[in-house]
Amino acid sequence: MLLTSRRCIALLALLALPAIAHESGPLHPDDLWTAWELEPGAVIPIALSALLYARGASAEHGVSRRQQVYFWLGLAVLAIALVSPLHPLGEVLFCAHMSQHEILMLVAAPLLVISRPLAPLLWGLPKQWRRPLGQWSKGRGVQKTWRWLTAPFSAWWIHAVILWGWHAPRLFQATLTSEWVHTAQHLSFFLSALLFWWALFYTRTEMGRGLSVFYVFTTAIHTGILGALLTFSPVLFYPAYARTSPLWGLTPLEDQQLGGLIMWVPAGVVYLVVGLLLLAAWLRESDVVLARRSYAD
Description:
- The chain is mostly helical and 297 residues long.
- 74% of the residues lie in helices and 0% in strands.
- It has one domain.
């Protein structure tokens, strides 16, 4: 598996090597495939995560082959979202920006969550760092904060507030003029999505697992409402794209409508499928609990 991990790291490195910053000014279609970006704020955390995971992920540390596959897929998708031409394309097309966000939140985040990466990442640290960090993570305050953040209701409203807040026109347009604001947007989307999926997949109580189904479907509803607003509104919410979307054969309103549809339909399908899977798992578990109680009686 170490060989596979090294190959995955090499693949991530190859994704970054062709990174050529496009010339100043709006990205044009002819420049798309040379517009890979080598942003240290994206490449360094991805490469560091890959290195630590490759060092710490093994069967003797309780990491299955399936978990390792999920992790490397999730990390590769994350690299594609942040390093590939999709990133600069999002600066000139709203629909591309929306696609990037959905990939971060609905593909990369859940893949990484189901891989359960925390333990192997900790094992990948140098030994002199591992023990103090492990002891710190077991502290009462840290554990209490973690339980609160990963409670399904907390994770649900944090994710919802961040999602709606960043789509306010003033904030969203600020991401197109400030790299710091853009980074903050991506980081908050990704981290809130990690919390959301972690809370849903690993909730600790039977009631919490039932509520997880409710939170998935309500997330599908409120994100669908936002997508529908973007799709059907005759008003252009993000005028910053007005001068760039025509370069790609779209009117600014068509670009906005396409972005709204991406949030509404494909994202809604993902939430629906996950919700049905969680519902089926909850019903199976409820049947097992009822069977045990009947047997005990």
